[in-house]
Amino acid sequence: MKLKGYRSKFERGASQFTEALWLVVKCVAFMPPIPLPSKLRVWLLGAFGARVGKGVVIRSQVDIAFPWRLTVGNDVWIGEGVKILNLASVTIGNDCCLSQRSFLCTGSHRFDLPEFDLVTRPIVVNDGSWIAAGVFVAPGVSIGPNSMCAAGSVVLNDVPANTKVIGNPACPKNQP
């Protein structure tokens, strides 16, 4: 790869003013380890274009890159230190849990090309799923309904419904 002169063609999805304002709000209301009310955080996300359901708990130090690309269902828990790098859309269904320090990442780069092109793909976490502590979810992954990604796993591929995955790379629990 050749990074000299790299120019991203990424469309940020909002004006520079909106993005700058979001960064200020995120630094004040989301990133500090202060236990602010979830209702305030939910309201702020909505004010920046996120679609957030009822009964959502958002703990401290949650880092959401672009709220206008986030959809969260009802009765969702987003734990301390969760990072959502949503260069593409992230959809979280109803009754889901994203545990501490989990990382949903919708972007990567084409290492095989000298231009190091940015590649973005959406992530979907379907109803009833649990992304345990320290899990990495890669771009384009869909977590099936009622599935679990065990702590510390690296999820590079779709997870079928009603499946527990573990490891790096994550694979179904009963397989090597």
SSE layout and pairing:
Elements: H1 16-30, H2 38-47, E1 51-52, E2 57-58, E3 63-64, E4 70-72, E5 77-78, E6 83-85, E7 90-92, E8 97-98, E9 103-105, E10 107-109, E11 118-120, E12 123-125, E13 130-131, E14 136-137, E15 142-143, E16 148-149, E17 154-155, E18 164-167, E19 170-172
* Architecture (CATH level 2) name: 3 Solenoid
Q: What radius of gyration results from the CA coordinates?
A: 16 Å
Strand content: 25-35%
End-to-end Cα distance, whole Å, is: 34 Å
Any idea of the CATH topology?
UDP N-Acetylglucosamine Acyltransferase, domain 1
Supply the number of structural domains. 1
- Helix tally equals 2
- Write down the CATH class: Mainly Beta
Instruction: Provide the residue-averaged pLDDT.
Output: 95
Shape annotation:
globular
The secondary-structure class comes to alpha/beta
The CATH homologous superfamily is called Hexapeptide repeat proteins
Biggest β-sheet strands, sense, barrel:
7 strands, mixed
GO molecular function, one term: O-acyltransferase activity
Protein name: Colanic acid biosynthesis acetyltransferase
Keywords: Acyltransferase, Transferase
Organism: Rhodopirellula baltica (strain DSM 10527 / NCIMB 13988 / SH1)
Give a brief outline of the structure.
The protein has 176 residues and is α/β, with parallel strands linked by helices. The protein has a single domain (16-172), classed as Hexapeptide repeat proteins (UDP N-Acetylglucosamine Acyltransferase, domain 1, 3 Solenoid), CATH 2.160.10.10.
Could you describe the 3D structure shown?
- It comes from Rhodopirellula baltica (strain DSM 10527 / NCIMB 13988 / SH1).
- Belongs to the transferase hexapeptide repeat family.
- It is an enzyme of class 2 (transferase).
- Keywords: Acyltransferase, Transferase.
- InterPro entries: Hexapeptide_acetyltransf, Trimer_LpxA-like_sf.
- The chain is of the alpha/beta class and 176 residues long.
- The protein has a single domain (16-172), classed as 3 Solenoid (UDP N-Acetylglucosamine Acyltransferase, domain 1), CATH 2.160.10.
- Helix content is 14%, strand content 27%.
- It contains 2 helices and 19 strands.
- The protein has helices at 16-30, 38-47; strands spanning 51-52, 57-58, 63-64, 70-72, 77-78, 83-85, 90-92, 97-98, 103-105, 107-109, 118-120, 123-125, 130-131, 136-137, 142-143, 148-149, 154-155, 164-167, 170-172.
- It has a 7-stranded mixed beta sheet with strand order 2-5-8-13-16-18-19.
- The longest helix has 15 residues, at 16-30.
- The protein is globular, with a radius of gyration of 16 Å.
- The protein starts with 15 loop residues before the first helix and ends with a strand.
- The model has no long low-confidence stretch (mean pLDDT 95).
